[in-house]
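Recall that a protein's primary structure is simply its ordered list of amino acids. Everything else, from secondary elements to tertiary packing, is in principle encoded there. The following example makes that idea concrete.
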Amino acid sequence: MKDKYFIPKRIALLGIGIALYVVLGFMVKIPLIAHIQTDLGYLVFGVMCAMVGWPAFIVGVLGALIESLIFSGWVPVGWMVGQALIGIICGLAFKHIKIKWVNIIIAIAAVFLGVAVCKTGIECALYDIPLLVKFPKNAIAFIADAIPMVMGYVLAITALKKPIALFNQE
């Protein structure tokens, strides 16, 4: 039997995830090169992907949008599309694949696709930036983002003994 509070619980959880993504995104920024810095919002993103599955892409998209609007006042189209890709891939993988090390590899690959490939391609197309200029910066951003994403997944599977089934109806 379906829990009548299932949808409101998931919406509330996603809202909390978005808020935590934004707050952690502002808390600790370790500058790497130029304007590239660590984003601890990915820690929350990894936890949310493990807890709610593919709907966690909303946390990444809206978290990136709100963080960027507050921090710099612009809409990061490439980052938002990349976040959606990462959230959908990781959410589906974390829900359906039970082998932890495979999920870690998938998380790293998804962040690479989202940040180094998707975000780079969109930004190069929109802003006419040469690929050879943008890709190295986003490759560094990929490394800086993949680490907290994997840490979030590991935190979720460690703290919540069965995170996949916590908020999914089965």
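The first strand starts at residue 31 and ends at 33. Confidence is low (pLDDT under 50) at residues 163-170.
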